[in-house]
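fwd from M.: "can u put these together and see what the complex looks like"

so here's what she sent:
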Amino acid sequence: MSNIRSFQNNKRKSAVDHSDSSNGVTKAKQIRLEEKNNKVVKDINVEGFAESRAVEIQALTEVVKRNGGNHMAFQKLPRHMRRRAMSHNIKRVPRRLHDAVRSELEKTKPPGKRPSRCYRRRPKNLLAEYERRKRKIGWLETHIWHAKRFKMVQRWNYKLPLHPNEKSIRACYRAVNKHCLMQDVSFESYIEIKGPQQRILQELSHLTSNKTGPTFASQMTLSGTREGRLTLYTYDGYPCSAIGPVTFLWQAVYPHDGIKALDNGSTLWICCHPSFYAQALEEVTKCFNKNTNFDSSAVQDNTCEEIRVVSLKDDLVKFRLYGPASNVVLSEVLQVADIENIEIKNEDNKENKEEPASSSISGSSTDAGADKQVGSLSLKDKDADVSAGFWWKDFYSSTASRSYFLQQSDCWMQVRKCNSPAEAPSNCLLALTVRDPRLLLPPKKTKVFNANREAAVGVLPPELFTAGLGVSPLWSAEIRQQVKVTKISEQRLNELKSKHTFPGCPLRLRDKESRIPVILIQRPGSSSVSSTSHLGYASGWDVLIPSGWAMAFWVALVYRGARVGGVREARSIALQAGSLCKPFDFPDSPAGREQLQTESEALQVRHDRRPPAKRPNYTKLGFQSPFAPQWSSLVNEWRIKTTTLLEKLHISEPTVESNKGGFYVLRDRKCLRLLNSTFTGNSGSVRSNNRVTKNGKGGENILKILSSDAWRQMTEQHLFALVPVLLSIRHRGVPKAFGHICLPTLEDFIKLEKDKSFGGPEEKKHIDPEAPVRKEERKVRLQLRKKKKRGKGSKNANIQSLPTSRDFKEPSRTAEETKNTKEPEADPNIKNEMNLRDARDVKLLGHNSRMVCGFVRNGDFDFGRGHGTGLGFCSLAALLHLLEQQGQRKTYLVLFRNPTSFQYRFASLSIVV
Amino acid sequence: MQASGHTADDEEYTLHKRMPPRLPQRLNDVYITEKTHFKAQESKCQKLLDSGNEVIIHGLGKAVNRAINLALQLKERGNGTVQICCQTSTVDLVDELIPEADGDVKTSMRSNSAIHIRVYR
């Protein structure tokens, strides 16, 4: 009985009537009766009846159960059972459907009504909404300013401006070259390490290598007058496991006890890019924990033997200014504040005199009362509560600190007169305490110029740059907090402005005005000795500001005519200055790898979206992986290839197989300079002893050079290394990302010598094994289309009869199909085959007519040089071959080929040191 | 290259030349570089000369020859209408020697000759 109940209603009726009589004995009788009466059936054996129709019943139940489409349960009811407003009142639905309907209604409940725009735009609600969005992903303080004007992208856990919405590539170049471009780089955050200097240096030495240049212990940075830069590695990980490039500051040492006790306190700030910030922080904390066996996993705040590692994420704001006019722009914005304590009395008196006058004009008694309160407050301050808002009174109370302040302001007075930031000492620090930039804002946006200004007297005297320039209250967390808290709100400021006696005149708040500590850090830009771009290109200042003040300074800078760039601009500046851009140009670090992967995935998706006829066929072009460079196979294949050359040079092969199928970028300064001197004919060092290489150089000579001690050492150590190279295009062409850098053949040189305007050889068309298959498919598709036009009846039969490898249900490709039909890789089997083939037979080097020696990482047209420029990475072993091949030539040439082209182009090569 | 006595630690330092000091640039000041295309500089100067009747051409060190050459070219083109007034000076330059190891930065001063040619009608 129980199983019967689950069957459908109409069947159940008959079943209930006759179920009692169903048993084994009566079965035979029934059958007999049925046979006799033949027409009238009185009893049915329900079990048997149901069993024999089980499949149909099952199917019917399924059909009834399924609502089909977007129907609710009660919509499936027969017409006579429907009632009005069933969806509104559940009691109108038959009771047995209550549960189903209730669950359905819950699912389809509409979200609450969106509040009105008016409500949403109220400042309080808008801010709450912004706070909500910020919780998901980091925002810069200038986010809203940028969001109105820039293409915003999500990168490195921040929402960052990528590029301005206006058409501005050339304008940005001009700003860097002639005026001022700036970028908000607050996403680069600091790690603070406090403790005894010797211990810090000792532990951190594991994360760096002195082969890559000056380390944390460098004399030039220890005194706190210069910023240092280096590459971080994992613990004793040099040269294989790089983390990324960082800059660092040591807190300036105070030679007196007025401000801070010196004994054990050294503070180091390490500035990391957000793409590897977490990794660097973890590595640094681990490094200090290792020796003391501390097992604290707290990364944020870590204490061990007086060494504290603190993350200063979002505690500081950093603006990066490029270009010669950044001096003028900054000199307008950064006006040195008045820190004299003595004048307080006079000021108070003056204020008291002034205020009644203003209030009498405005005629508001409450205002005067408020001002009197403030005046009395400032009198109280002198007693004890200096820290309430006037931190500078406390900080500059000692004569020593005041003398530093004077030194700093004197220096700034001189430096700001210079025509270019590159005239200041490279990477020097200059701490300042400046006035509130909102009070100095010009009424309209202007563009400040160098011309018709006070001129610099000549070279900046070296006496100006004393040790005290780096002394800044910005190092103290308390003061940063106070500066942030005591900021006068925009609203209050506007109120004050509106009550000002002479509208339009700058406000004079005297003591009430905030004093903001900032640190200026010079960037020297490109130096003409080592790079090909012009002297001082991309030089400028980095401005460090306490958090909370970003918009005040930002708007002030913009109002002086500084153009704003985003991440894209920063990258193109780095390319034109011939320097590496983090994290893009660090392919051996995890951050760089991740960046590369996201880029190549995006390219792959873009490629797959297009129909085959509208996208390049990379198989024919001979590009095995057009979206991601195959660094490790490049390095390994070249290493195998160099064995003969090494024998010729009598160099033993590297015995230590240090890397596990990996590669790394060569950052040994000595090696890079050696390479550079050989390639460009001059070395970056003071006296270039290596100039000999260019004089009367013959084939044997180059071999001699290559087998010299320095070279031998380098090849023995770094045969797995990639070398960062800059391509300077000879004739035509612009390199693009992931293009090939190739070795030319002798024929190319012969052709080039015959014809100076020879553009470059062409790659032969490769055979695409999938082409005939696709051709067949197209044939089928056309046939099907014809059939469909004639009549749809015989379609299915035809498909089966036609010889196809894949199923075609539709005669023409839909967008979805296009997406699924990747050229040869569409079928997973085929893809696997291809991959296998790649792995087994098709090697990188033998694949094309010219041997690949590296890949382009970034390339573009260079406005400064007037031709294309590219940054790429070559295998060191390949460069050895290049030197051997072109030993007789005056200049070393390579070929490059973009992924979408058969055309090779000539380029000359220089090493990024 | 320069008259500093750092011969012992040649390999230990990288030379970084600071930007030479410059007077504030008016619109008709042209600083000549070796890297810019000569024809482009010439046409730029010619345009400035035609528009304002005065150009001041500055050349430093290696670019002195170029500056003179350019001024003479402008004079020749002017068919006798263009005159030249020439002044020489000495510019102090600073070289920074940035250590490759953990040393301190050294600076060295040197002087270089410069030329300022006023080309006018």
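replying to her w this: Chain A has a mean pLDDT of 78.
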